[in-house]
Amino acid sequence: MKDLKKILVTGGAGFIGVNLIKLILRDYPDYHVINFDALTYAGNLVSLADVENNPRYTFIKGDVANREAVNNAIEGCWGVLHLAAESHVDRSILDAAPFLNTNVIGTMTILDAMRKHNLKRYVQVSTDEVYGALKPDDPEFSETNRLLPNSPYSASKAGADLLVRSYFKTYDLPVIITRCSNNYGPYQFPEKLIPLLISNALQDKPIPVYGDGCQIRDWLYVEDHCRALMTVFEKGMPGEIYNIGGNNEIMNLDLVKTLLRQIGKPESLIESVKDRPGHDRRYAINSSRIKNELGWEPQYKLEDAMQKTVAWYLENDDWIDSVISGDYMEYYNKQYGE
Ligand code: NAD
Ligand code: TYD
CB burial class (10 A; 0-12, 13-18, 19+) of residue 111? Predict the structure, then answer.
């Protein structure tokens, strides 16, 4: 067997991590993936049951803020795709502490280990939310926009990005930052808008829409995002930042109505609730750098990929059930016998 490059994917049991690992195992045969994940409420190994016996896949349970665990996992790796994070804005409003610990201290710990073990590649998976909010007529975010985060979540991600930049400038580490817009697709935890909507609608429960529902997000299909991450990982320029967007701006209320129509449920399920404090009005991403310099393009159109996503959740109601019941949390003990 030829020599495989070992890569560490942190947060590989989360929504984007699961999709990324499946893509690497399917389409990138030169890598052995080590999935390093603490299995918080957002980590779900049931989603990876179909690949857990793949000889190019290893799972390690561990916390990115734990120096010893990170050093042990990273030894012998060629590169890192760092996705592990606390990722839900509403939770960060209730308690910022886990966000600072995982998103900032965890990033520092990975960077230090990368330096110690002389790794060749690092991708920091960040977010467009670090740029703050746009007004209706503002141009889309570009990589040179100022960082103006408005939630504890986005502030912790911006802090991590600045740390990554400093390790490039100070230690010449081969690090790259990506900033993507809102992802959607299979295996997303049903606290985020789209899976929450689908899960509630299937149970005829109300769909909470924050404030006037006129906030705008730029939706990106998760598989397109994962391909962009691999493009940056393989071809990106160290020290650079690449925005990744779907070029699909849509108002929350319009998105909710479209999805309800696709599922065949009435708009009467929509329930207007109190707005999120500090709620960003609009995000939109200019992805021309990654397109022009690295040749990445999204493959999916919004309508098609939304339909594909709805179909996936309808076909995989047992996956949603195991998340809602909490059964998915037992999977690690059952399979890995702790
Ligand atoms: P997620 O919340 O679904 O998954 C996060 C994963 O990280 C989980 O498996 C969790 O167990 C793991 N994790 C959390 N704390 C950890 C710790 N201390 N040590 C090790 N593992 C830990 O998140 P996601 O939606 O898959 O997002 C992945 C990355 O992409 C995050 O960095 C997030 O900020 C970024 N991002 C996500 C979106 C989106 O729309 N989902 C948009 C922009 C950026
Ligand atoms: P979310 O999926 O939490 O992503 P983010 O806050 O990172 O953009 O929310 C997407 C949009 O949907 C955001 O404007 C908040 C809104 N939203 C609701 O209106 N109701 C909900 O129940 C949730 C979870 C989100």
Answer: buried
pLDDT tens column, 239-284? 999 999 999 999 999 999 999 999 999 999 999 999 999 999 999 9
28 lines ligand 1 (CB under 6 A): no
Ligand 1 in reach of 323 Cβ (< 6 A):
no
SS3 252: helix
* Catalytic residue check, 212: no
Residues of the chain with pLDDT under 70: 1, 338
Q: Which of 153, 167, 242, 313 is catalytic?
A: 153
Ligand 1 pocket test, pick from 40, 48, 218, 242 with the greatest ligand atom count within 8 Å of Cβ, gives: 40
Residues 284 and 128: their CA atoms lie apart, in Å, by 8
Spans of all domains in the chain: 5-336
Q: Tell me: the pLDDT tens digits for 66-114?
A: 999 999 999 999 999 999 999 999 999 999 999 999 999 999 999 999 9
Q: Check pocket membership of 109 for ligand 1, CB cut-off 6 A.
A: no
CATH of the structural domain 5-336, one choice from 3.40.50.720, 3.40.50.2000, 3.30.565.10, 1.10.443.10: 3.40.50.720
Sign of CA dihedral 133, 19, 318, 60: negative
